[in-house]
Amino acid sequence: MKQNRWKRGILIGAAVGALSSLFHRETREGAIAFGRDVMDQFKNYREDPSKAFEDLRTTVEGIEYYADSIIKQLDDADQMLEKRPKQN
């Protein structure tokens, strides 16, 4: 039961926060513009489903590239730490 209260509290808090942020005009207009962009994208994907797969593939490739870059940087940092002289 307590877990349900916690989840309900989180959802209520998020809803109240989202609604209260919409009192700010620029935020409200931005949310409306974002919603329109998302709906336009859905319409485009519905008309050309292969575009959705192409965009997904491009996104995944970008994520893989950045993940590989981060892993390389972490490996380089680890090697630098291993070469550093030990302090007493």
TrEMBL record:
Domain of life: Bacteria
This protein's name: YtxH domain-containing protein
Source organism (scientific name): Salinibacillus aidingensis
